[in-house]
What we know:
This protein is of the alpha+beta class. 56% of the residues lie in helices and 14% in strands.
Amino acid sequence: MSLSRWxxxxxxxxxxxxxxxxxxIAVIANIVLALLVGRIAVRLxxxxxxxxxxxxxxxxxxxxxxxxxxxxxxxxxxxxxxxAMPLIELPPARAITITEVLLAVLxxxxxxxxxxxxxxxxxxxxxxxxxxxxxxxRALLSLMGRTLKVVVVIIAAVxxxxxxxxxxxxxxxxxxxxxxxxxxxxxxxxENLFGAFALGVDQPLREGDFVRVEADLIGTVEAVGLRSxxxxxxxxxxxxxxxxxxxxxxxxxxxxxxxxxFATTLGLTYGTTASQLRAVRDGIEETLRNHPKxxxxxxxxxxxxxxxxxxxxxxxCWFQTSDYQEFRxxxxxxxxxxxxxxxxxxxxxxxxxxxxxxxxVPPTMRSSNA
Length: 370
């Protein structure tokens, strides 16, 4: 059905861009109508979806609906405009041009929605319980979000340039050669970024952990950055390690242990009798078993042998704590209790001693030597 038969004669005259004046009015009216109808349609869609997402426990879908409202309104307006275009009776060449413009706006709306969705996903992931327990992961999530945005924008830009007829393949080849040159120059930086991702995924250390790196670095992790990790040593100096190197190093994390090991060797004097030795052994074992912080399922109190200057007892147990300060306090109490057990038994701790035997020379040998 043609609308031109009901159009007043003055509006049938051609205006700019070889369109009749009534067509220009229809194009503008179509834009206003598309915006209004698109907004109403999206409101109805959101109302329908809200009844569904309200039943879910997660807040991710609610946040996505809130952030994607504007891109969805733009998509709804595009759909309405495209459906009403045949009524305007545009010339084929102008219809193709307007369709290409609509496709460009459609691509913009899709990219806009993807960028907002990435923000919501990264924020939701950073607010999760596992991310709160891993401070380094939040920085990595931020980096991942920015990387995904750059990838989306690059794909959209390449698609747009290809759509307008530019030689995308030649441009990509040039970018590839330049990218290789940049990659060689920024090799260490890229290596450190990948190292940061590896540290964030494996979590061998976290901020605040007391760690040993290799064999010569012991300290507390102060910060895990995108390029390097800083460790505060026991001498209060600050050591900075590139993440690329750190990811390949041997890392021992004391904060991740569930128990602290206590091991010592007690040396009793050789004057200790067998009954006293058994009394010391049984008394120490009873002391350990009665302590509320001792893990009694694996405990060793045994006479291990005759030392050079002492009778040696091996004492090994585990304290049920991961706090090193608490471990020190428990260890002090256990050592004092062991001293009391040894004192009650009548024995004593041995000192490192040596016995020197001096042989006297007979008088006949002394006179002959003279």
